[in-house]
Amino acid sequence: MRRDGFALSGAGVVMMKELADNLSSVRMRLLELLVFVAGAGAVYATIGEVRSVVSEDPFVFLRLFTTPKAPLPSFVAFLGFLIPIVAIALGFDSVNSEFNHRTMSRLLAQPIYRDALLFGKFLAGLATLAITLTALWLFVIGLGVLLLGLPPSGEEVLRGFAFLLAAIAYSGVWLALALLFSVVFRSAATAALAALSVWLLFAFFWSMLVSLIAPIVAPADPDNVMSLLHNANVTEALSRLSPNTLFAETALAALNPSTRSLGVVLSSQLQGAISAPLPFAESVALIWPQVTGLIAAAIGLFTIAYIAFQRQEVRA
Amino acid sequence: MSEPIIRAEALTKRYGSALAVDRLDLTVEAGEVFGLLGPNGAGKTTTILMLLGLTEPTSGRAVVAGFDPLRQPLEVKRCVGYMPDSVGFYDHLSGVANMRYSAALCGMKPADADARIDAALRRVRLEAAGAKPVRGYSRGMRQRLAIAEILMKGAAIAILDEPTGGLDPQSTREFLDLIHSLKHEGMTILLSSHLLELVQSICDRVALFHRGRIGLTGRVDDLLSDVLGGTQVIRIEARGAGLADAIGRVAGVKRVSEATNGFRVEARGDARAAVARAIVEAGGELMSVEAGHASLEEVYTRYFEGVRDAA
């Protein structure tokens, strides 16, 4: 059935209001503090390690992001861990709070479609995350310039930017998941718990699950090379179902130019290869499937949330 | 006669196997105050949501201000102001900020919106509280803010769901006065309530809901005389044995029921004198005889009792 009028009219208004709410909320202050302290800590701890290799590595600046210094993980690992939490914190109560505060029916009685409301909320969340991540990114680069005393090269900036875009896509996945749960569960606490359980599953248990499932699906026979290869491929495919894996692989290939492949590499394929950093364009080609996968996951989750929201009754 | 501003034809809403609204027909003329009355769960809110295009009817159709709520919901929502049952606002924002958001959603220019918001807040006497966060508003203030939002929108039709729910008597009276003045400005008002007595005074016409159907529609006075058929209710305070039988034998008395400290008598015409005489003659102690007001409450009870008996 056709309905008159533009489905997204008013989405901009919703987005600006939600963005203002997000940016001015106490919750956001706390998250920003958490992210910046963690980021600064990780980079500051790394700086000593990085300094020692300044003369050896043409991409020393990128090492700021990727080098861990025990007991702290690397900056990238920190982000892989913290981004989901920030995204979930922003999204878990976005739709159900409208019901709980009884503003939903009054809001939908204004001349807008539901589409505009959901799109506006998602875009506002994504914009908030993008602003925070960009600020953090600039902060880390600035810190690097100060502590290392040298500016990043053009390619380093490009690679860093590709990583930033991937991080925003990754945050979009978790935001869409949180939004989905905020539509499905009327109680904000339930939605938050559900989203955090999914995060916990992918952050900690997924690799264990994969190592349990893979041998069942593709048993590895030590005498059969093909079965070993099959097992490795299945393990890889399963672990890539997790957005965390996709993000980690993207970060690895974007920030470490010597990464030549993200999959299984046979020693015969490496024969005659020259050990040199990959050009930027090649690295982009390498991470393209991962980033596409992240964006697709975000769109897929948003679509499910969209359908669920359209079918929901307005009355609480 | 002009086209009615709200018309519903055989509107039906089914939730699974439960029938929330059953083949409902309704017309509201422009400038009228129309009451949807009935107990909770009778289908009033569902009807309102269907008229606003917020819920899809299972079958049937509606026309609101010349638009189809199903296909042209934006047009309908542009000219209808809606105040939901227990209305909510964003607590952390001020009253003005809440209204600015609605104004922006209606597509108003900020300068135009501010002028309208000012005027609307003055109208509902919230101009002093407008800049404060809604968190500190009382229930009555929230309700008035919702009315201000409808005024700001310049809506031709106001749909109010349980507008007096949870208000104290003072606020209720003020609220009814406000509705009165809106009517005088030519706004069409559709309101729902389960407090029949209360809205009896302000509604031009009412529809009595019962289990998803409209049992009766019409002017309040007409309903009173049609259903009660000139029956008067008399409340009697009296003590004594066998009085109920004695009263029942009085000519014109249709029904006698026990009430606190006495009886409730329904009779055709004014039977007060005859009933008083019968009580005294039967040796009872008569304390008071009082003619009761005919109310919608009684119409409702009586009519649907009849429906149930017939079924």
Strand content of chain A: under 5%
Most residues in contact, chain pair and counts: A-B, 26 and 34 residues
CATH superfamily of the largest domain in chain B: P-loop containing nucleotide triphosphate hydrolases
Helix content, binned percent of chain B: 25-40%
For the biggest sheet of chain B, the summary is: 6 strands, mixed
| Helix and strand pattern of chain B | EEEHEHEHHHEHEHEEHEHEEHEH
Strand fraction of chain B: 25-35%
Low-confidence stretches of chain B: none
Number of domains of chain B: 2
Largest sheet of chain A: none
Radius of gyration of chain A over all CA atoms, rounded: 22 Å
CATH topology of the largest domain in chain B: Rossmann fold
* Separation of the first and last Cα atoms of chain A: 26 Å
**Mean pLDDT metric of chain A:** 90
Name the CATH class of the largest domain in chain B.
Alpha Beta
Number of E-state strands of chain B: 13
Q: What would you call the shape of chain B? A: elongated
What strand line-up does the widest sheet of chain B have?
A: 5-6-7-3-8-9
Rg of chain B, Cα atoms, Å: 24 Å
- What is the chains' assembly state? heterodimer
Structural class of chain A: mainly alpha
Walk me through this protein's architecture.
The complex is a heterodimer of chains A (316) and B (311). Chain A is mainly α and 316 residues long. Chain A has a domain at 11-203 and 287-311. Helix content of chain A is 74%, strand content 0%. Chain A contains 13 helices and no strands. In chain A, helix 4 packs antiparallel against helix 7 (114-148), helix 7 (114-148) packs antiparallel against helix 8 (154-184) and helix 8 runs antiparallel to helix 11 (243-255). The longest helix of chain A is centred in the middle third of the chain and has 35 residues, at 114-148. The two termini of chain A are 26 Å apart. The mean pLDDT of chain A is 90. Chain B is of the alpha/beta class. Chain B has two domains: 6-219, 3-Layer(aba) Sandwich (Rossmann fold); 229-310, Alpha-Beta Plaits, CATH 3.30.70. Helix content of chain B is 38%, strand content 29%. A six-stranded mixed sheet of chain B has the order 5-6-7-3-8-9, sandwiched between helices. Chain B has a four-stranded antiparallel sheet with strand order 11-12-10-13. The radius of gyration of chain B is 24 Å and the shape is elongated.
